[in-house]
Structure formats: structure tokens, C-alpha cells
Amino acid sequence: MKATTHALLPVCTIPEDRPLACPWCGQLHARVALRPGDHCQCVRCGAQLATGRASNWHATLAWALTALILWVPANFLPIVAVSQLGNARESLLFTGVLGLWHQGLPWVAVLVALCGIVAPLLLLLTLTALLTPIVLGHPVTRLRFLVRWLHALELWSIPEVYLLSVLVAFIKLGDVVHVTPTAGLWCHAGMSLALFIAWRRFDLDAAAEVLTAGRVKGAVT
Amino acid sequence: MDRTLHCHACTLALPEAAPAYEATPCPRCGTPLRRRQPHAVERSAAFALAGLFMLVPANVLPVVSTILMGQARTDTIFSSALALYRDGLWGIALIVFTASILVPLLKLVSLGCLLHAVRTRSARRSRGLTKLYAFVKFIGRWSMLDVFLVAFLTGAVQFGSLATVRPEPGVIAFAAAVVLTVFATESFDPRLLWDANIDLAHDRAITP
To answer: Which of B152, B183, B197 should we substitute to test contact with A (largest number of A Cβ atoms within 10 Å)?
Structure first.
């Protein structure tokens, strides 16, 4: 009796001939070979599903690592030098967070730290952790759970919005306080750009497939 | 009924999924499988309403107070955009106005349209509404501009009586409104927009 109950429990297996689901409307599509430059759209809602570019794990990892390395100076070097009548002050990304915290807005400070500093770092660490073993030819199946966090991390990591707010502040302060961009700001801009490219190039479906199969197609096993 | 199912996290598609697969872990990444996000309409509507209520104090209360050259002033979101416009910086004023006032309102109106279409089981304009949802998801993050701006100014401009920027309680309400509208967008399931079409096609197939 116990065995029967066990057999009735739904055990989901991966279909052999895997269709492609539109992430927006759920419409299923058969997979076709695409040539470079091809774009494939959902037949029902028109969202772009795939492009003819093969998933290049090396290039994606290179962009993720670039962003990860740039994250360090972007957060530990001052992003601006502000001077007012001879008083000069250098400001880190974290200075704004501390400022909000000390002015009695701890929750807003946490939100800013999360969106501008922590989420980009976690997203980059996750991408690197998933991609490095794939590039080395030995995907780590145990890391599959990281796929679950990717969307949430991507949702809250918005370094480019922080960058725009700094630009707005430059123009706003322009004639009253003297503001000079410093090395940290350029590193932050580079980090945002590299993160954007890495995320755009990351093929989530292919990565999940490689991680499940435990081997990279075409790699020597 | 639509029998297809795809994993929300890794997009693995299961063409003939049994209803029993609901809430079982995805065989590929382990995320619980959901044919549609549970209580998508209720959750999305609740978050959107909360966001709408939060927008009132966010726009009425001051968000930032500045002391520059001995002159003190307190600004709401709208008045700071207006001040930029008066200073002749209309481009920046437009960016601030769009990101802080227009985007949150557009998001809530769009979410209202999406929820109305699902509630009334409308089979029309599903394609346009799906595109609208994708757009709402894309623009949502830019509303954080004002929160970041206040954070940056608070950290960078601290020169005592010469030049000081202080955050005001309006920022809390504004940040809460942004976070709540993001939750509202994420709770919604765009696959719901196509259910009426699927049922319609099914009815047509059995009654020619």
C-alpha cells in the first residue's frame, strides 16, 4: 500500500524533446536552429525569445568578472569630491547610506544599500559561481538552486539608476557647490555597463540545462 | 484549460503537465512549479492599492531640505522638479518629473488596466497588454532615482551652515511606494492575460 502511494506522488521529469516556453505568455514553441543575426519572436505575444547568437560562456564570464573586479574600486574609492569655499569632502557610495542612517531613516538606508551595493555584488557572485565551472567544463549540479535567486537579484540590482541620480546631482549642484567626479564614479559606470552586458548575454535556459546535464555540450568529458 | 506549464525561474517548459505537478519542485532548478502565480490578481491589487495610498504622503510631504549659502528651503518631489525647470535645467527637470511622478502613476494605471482585463476575462488586446506589462516591469526601477538622489546629496553635501542637505519624511513614503509597486508588478502573472483566449479557442473548437 505504501509503495502505491509513493508511485502516485507526482514526480516531474524533464521532457526529452524540450519545447521553449515564452517567459511572458507561456506559449510553447518547438526549437529550431537559428543562424547568426536571426531573431525569434513568440507567435502569440510577440516577445523576443531567442537570437541566433550561440551562448558564449567565456565571453559572459569575462563580462561578469570584469564587473566583479570593478565593484571593488566602485565601492571603496570616492565617487565624488565636493568642495565649498575651501572645505573639501570626498564621498563614497556608502557615505549616502550612512547619511540616511544617521539622519533617522534606517529603512531607506537599507533599501539604498541593497539596490546600489549589495544586490549587484550578489548577482555578480552568483553569475560567476554558475559560469566558472561551466567554462571549466565541469558544471556543478549542486549550484542549480542559485538559478532561483537570479530574478530577484536582478530585480533589485539597479546600479545604473544610482549613476543617473549622481549625474542629476552634478547638474543640480553645479553652480552652488563644486563637484568633481573621481575614480570611483568611473569604476561604478564600468561596473554597471559590464553587469548589464553580462546579464544580457547570460542564457538562463541553456545554463540551467547544462547544470542539470552535468556536462557542457562539445566539451571533452 | 491550458495544460502547459513552465517554471517561473528557469523557463523549463512542461507541455502536458498534470494538475498534480502544481507546487512540486521544478526538476531542473527546484523552484516550486506554478501553472499561474497563486492569488496573482488579489496580491497584485493589494500591493498596488497600498502603493497608491503611499503616493499621497510621498507627494505631499517634503522629501529633502537644503541649506545653501545661508538660505534654507524644503522641497517636495514636485517642487524640486519645478525648481530645476525654473533654473533653466528643463532636461533634468523632465527626467526627475518622469521618474518620480509620471512613472509611479503610469505603473499604477497600467496595473489597473491589466487587473481589469483579467477580472473581466477579456480576450481582446492580450498582445498589447502583455507588452504593457513588459514595459511596466522595465520602467519600474527608474523610480528609485529620487531615493538615490536624496541619499547621494545627504552623504556628499555636509558643510554645516554653508551647505547641508537633510532627508525629510517624504522619502520614506516615496521609497515605500516604489517598493510596493515593484511587489505589485512582480505578483502579477502575465499568463493570466491569455487564459480567456485559450478558453475561447477551446469553445470554438468544440462548437463549430
So the answer is: B152
Q: Which of A20, A95, A108 sits opposite B147 (nearest CB)?
A: A108
Question: What's the whole-number average pLDDT of chain A?
Answer: 83
Q: Could you tell me the strand order of the sheet in which B71-75 lies? A: B71-75, B64-68, B163-167
**Helix residue ranges per DSSP H, chain B:** 40-60, 77-86, 90-97, 103-119, 126-139, 145-156, 170-187, 195-206
Instruction: Give chain A's count of helices (H) and strands (E).
Output: 9, 7
Prediction pTM value? 0.88
Give the chain A residue nearest B65 (alpha carbons).
A103
> One-letter amino acid identity for B75?
D
Q: CB B144 to CB A15 under 8 A?
A: no
B194 neighbourhood in chain A, CB within 8 Å: 25-27, 44-45
Residue A52 in contact with residue A38, Cβ under 8 Å?
yes
Could you tell me which chain B residue has the CA closest to the CA of A108?
A: B172
Instruction: Kindly report, residue by residue over A97-154, the tens digit of the pLDDT.
Output: 999 999 989 999 999 999 999 999 999 999 999 999 888 888 888 888 888 889 889 9
Per residue in A147-177, is it b (16+ CB within 10 Å) or e — as a string? bbebeebbbbbbbbbbbbbbbbbbbbbeeeb
Q: Does the distance separating the beta carbons of A28 and B15 come in below 8 Å?
A: yes
- The Cα–Cα gap between B10 and B12 comes to 6
**Which ipTM did the prediction report?**
0.88
Shortest Cα distance from B168 to chain A (angstroms)?
9
Q: DSSP assignment of B104-163, as one string?
A: HHHHHHHHHHHHHHHHTT--SSHHHHHHHHHHHHHHGGGGGHHHHHHHHHHHH-B-TTSE
